[in-house]
Amino acid sequence: MAKQRFRDVKQGKAAAPKPKHIKKSTPERRYATAGEKLKAFLTDSFMLLMPIMYAVFYLVMGSREAFAEHKAAGWLYILIALVIVQTLFMYKSGQTPGYRAYDLEVIDESTGKRPSLFLILFRNLCAVLSAATLFGWTLMFFRKDRKNLHDLLSNTAVIKKPCTSC
What we know:
By secondary structure, the protein is mostly helical. It has helices at residues 6-10, 34-60, 64-69, 71-93, 97-101, 117-133, 135-138, 149-154, and strands spanning 104-108, 156-160. It has a two-stranded antiparallel sheet with strand order 1-2. The radius of gyration is 24 Å and the shape is elongated.
């Protein structure tokens, strides 16, 4: 193919060359804001974490004093139960009670659908580890897509659930 002259292209006598690399259009996702995620976290703390803590304090350990004597074991029981309960909620509907209250949903970033059971379990275990460092949770304040460290590690995202009745 002969080289086209700029003047011919400008005057419309010749067609402009087509770009070789066409960017694929990715679906536009409405990522959850940091405020929505924090409110959902607080809701989950009271609806899921408090009953688990009560059960561990009084049913498993026997009393607050016994929990105070064996804090490491008590917190391990609490975190294991929390990860299991959150994983079951997210596997069933992609939402915990806090996410449901604020119309948030967890999706697999590569497929745009609900993640697999293993991926949700991995995400929740990473969330516990990133909470221990606090860096993983503050990361959402500095990123445009508001992802936490556990979202980056598991390739998931928390999005605003699309309105089906709109």
